[in-house]
Amino acid sequence: MNNNPLKLIADNYNDLNAMMVKEIELATAHPGLTGSYREEMWRKLFRSMIPLKFSFVHGAMIIDSDGGISNEVDIAVIDEQYTPYIFQYHSLKLIPIEAVSMVIECKSTSLPEEQLIEWAKSIDDLNAKNTGIARMATGYSIGVTNITQSKTRPIKVLVSIKESTKDVTIEALKERLGDHFDFIVQEQVNVVAQNKLFQLLVKHEDKTLGWWGKRLNEHKDVDQLKDFVKDPLPLLGYVKESGVKELNDSGLEVISVAAVNPDAKSITSTITNTLEDLVIQGNPLLTLNLQLNQLLMLMNNPMLFPHFAYAKAFNKLNENQDIQKP
C-alpha cells in the first residue's frame, strides 16, 4: 500500500471526477433535478477548492457604479470583506463588481456560442472603481495612490456536462471560447479508458503569470496582450543568492539580475512560469485547483469598496427624479 499523502490526494481528485460524472448522469435521468442539481454540484466542487473567505451566490446579476449590469450569473464567487452585502430586492440579487472574484456559467444541453460570448462580454464591460478608502498599516489608503488596488475583472469559468460532438471538438471549443472564458470544464469521453471524465480546457495555459496579471488586474484583453506572451512577473524586494536556489527548487523559473545595491550579493528577480507548469498530467480537477487558486492569488483581492462612487450614482438618479421618493 502506498501511503504517500500526495498520491492519496491525486487519487481522490480522480475518484471525485468519476463520481461527479455518475451523479450528473443520474440527475439527467430525472429531468426535474438537472437544473438546480448541476449548479449545486459545481458549487460543492469549487467550495472544496478555494479559500473559505469567498462566498457563493446563485442566480445574481453584477452591477457597477456607472449603471452597468451583467447578464444573469449562475454562480458568483464574492469576497465580502470590504463590500456591503448584496443589494437584494426580493429574489433579485445585485452584486457590486468590486466584490466579485469569479463567475461561473453552467451549461447542460447546449453550448450556444454567441450567447456565451455575449454573457462573457457583459462581465467584461463592467467598470470596477479603485477609489475605495480604508485604513491600512501606514495610514488611510485609496486605490489611485495604492498600487495594490488596481481595477480587476473576475475570473470567468464555463462548466458543461454536455459532451463534445464531432461538430464541436474539444480543440474547437477551446479555440472558439477560450478567449472569453479563462477556464472551461467539460465532460469528455476517454477513448482509452472507455469512460467519461470532466476535462479542463485553458486556451492561454502557455502564457506567463505576468501575462495573466495584466489581463486580470489591468482589464487587458487578448489582443492588447500580444506583446506580453512571455512577460515575466517581477518580484518585490531583493533576493539573496542562496534564495535563488530555493526558488528554483520550488519549481519557479527565475531570471536574476544583479541589483544596484550596497549588498553586492542581493539581486532582483522575475519569474517566467506559466499555467502549464501547474498541470498535473492525467488529473484535470487537481490541475484546476492549482491553476485557479494561483490566479486568485494574483488578483487584487479584495478591492476596497468605492462608497462615494455609488453614492454619486444614486444621487445622480435622484437629481433626474428616477428614484421614487417616500
Summarize the SSE layout with pairings:
Layout: H1 5-28, H2 31-47, E1 54-63, E2 73-79, E3 87-89, E4 92-96, E5 100-107, H3 113-124, E6 133-136, E7 139-142, E8 155-160, H4 170-177, E9 183-190, E10 195-201, H5 209-217, E11 233-234, E12 239-240, H6 241-249, E13 254-258, E14 266-271, H7 284-298, H8 307-319
Parallel strand pairs: 1-4, 5-8, 8-9
Antiparallel strand pairs: 1-2, 2-5, 3-4, 6-7, 9-10, 11-14, 12-14, 13-14
Helix pairs in contact: 1-2
Kindly summarize this structure in a few lines.
The protein has 326 residues and is of the alpha+beta class.
Description of the molecule:
The chain is of the alpha+beta class. The protein has 8 helices and 14 strands. It has helices at residues 5-28, 31-47, 113-124, 170-177, 209-217, 241-249, 284-298, 307-319, and strands at residues 54-63, 73-79, 87-89, 92-96, 100-107, 133-136, 139-142, 155-160, 183-190, 195-201, 233-234, 239-240, 254-258, 266-271. The strands form 3 sheets. The protein has an 8-stranded mixed sheet. Strands 11, 12, 13 and 14 form a 4-stranded antiparallel sheet that branches. Helix 1 (5-28) packs antiparallel against helix 2 (31-47). It is globular. The N and C termini lie far apart (71 Å).
Q: Report the sheet with the most strands, covering strand number, pairing sense and barrel closure.
A: 8 strands, mixed
The fraction of residues in strands falls at 15-25%
The rounded Rg comes to: 22 Å
Figure out the total of helices: 8
Shape annotation:
globular
Mean pLDDT: 84
Helix content: 25-40%
Number of strands: 14
